[in-house]
Amino acid sequence: MDNVRNPVGNPIAGIDPDEIVDTRPYTNLLSQFITANSRGNPDFTNLPRKWNVCVVGTHDLYEHPHINDLAYMPANRDGRFGFNILVGGFFSPKRCEEAIPLDAWVPAEDVLPLCKSVLEAYRDLGTRGNRQKTRMMWLIDELGVEGFRAEVEKRMPNGKLERASSEDLVNKQWERRDYFGVHPQRQEGLSYIGLHVPVGRLQADDMDELARLADTYGTGELRLTVEQNIIIPNVETSKTEALLQEPFLKNRFSPEPSILMKGLVACTGNQFCGQAIIETKLRALKVTEEVERLVAVPKPIRMHWTGCPNTCGQVQVADIGFMGCLTRGENGKPVEGADVYVGGRIGSDSHIGEIYKKGVRVTELVPLVAEILIKEFGAVPREREENED
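Structure tokens predicted for Ferredoxin--nitrite reductase, chloroplastic:
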């Protein structure tokens, strides 16, 4: 569907002691507009291509603004709260780009009019030919940033769009926090608990059990993160120990995942997706488990898997990414493989990773990943670590 995907905000919005702004009012407003309060909004159901939007509310940039078509970055102007605007971030088989500044600021009350104006400009002017060249950044390239900005500006209710503010509220030196485990909320006496969902795979029984835990220990609310994990908010701090003792948290859904597992993301893969070239989720788990037996890693490493060049697994922003492909086996016949990416980053110093090695057979990934972790990320072979101990 060439439509607007669900607006993304801070997964700990409203409970984060260090948040800049609670993103929920804005993401809810955008969702209601995009779906016409769940009735369907025909004005924006036939865009040139899919379109992503996020509202940033935290220094951690959990929302991944640099890979969204439209991102709202909190900023003040003369004592008024609002947002600077980024546009054009996207991934595709042909091209991947980070979002760029539109040189625009809107007050908080204009979040919706700005979104509507950007969507209208994209809908009305975007190319509808070659689907590899129809994401919004291609239109921005065609018009130029100033030309695209002018098209957005004239669609604003008052025909005006202020230039970007210099009062950026995001702390660019901020060290991204880990949301796994127990953390105090801004509300006294309450905590939230981040749980690891291995490669984002939940069965129906798992969801039932998570709902039970949310009802028993929290307020019946579960929150999802873009890394495919789950947060249970509003748990009385006095009950957190009892929650941690639940059998459900002792096995797969740990609040303390291993250092490589916590950053593991995988798309659906060819088990359920017709476009995927390789199986991703089970293989991602197996490769990571084997690599953990070979090396000790000093810090969390984000490893992403995607089954095809559409890169739903967002391999280009991972420390190490694996994009499914077909390659040649020893007998010369096609076998499952992966193009390996290294060097992607998220946060204020975001960066798109680059190809490290193409066409690696999936059966040969474990030693290659161990090698990359040692050379690029300071990992130590387990044998040496044991000898030093």
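DSSP finds nine helices and 18 strands in the chain.
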